[in-house]
Amino acid sequence: MKPLKPDQLRRMSLQDLERELDNQRTELYRLRVQKTVAQLKNTDALRIVRRNIARLETLIKEKARGVNA
Question: How many domains would you assign to the chain?
Fold first, then answer.
């Protein structure tokens, strides 16, 4: 699991960002289930996915407001 790069995300369209956000939320759910049943070996993946979700939400809000950063 790698963190998403902000420069790559900024080039994506709003629909692509929302699709990726859905994917990351699904991944977070899957990781939480694995953690609950003690099958998760890489616990750092939870932190990475949560931060990816935060990055995506921030960029979606920026694009929705028309901020060019």
Answer: 1
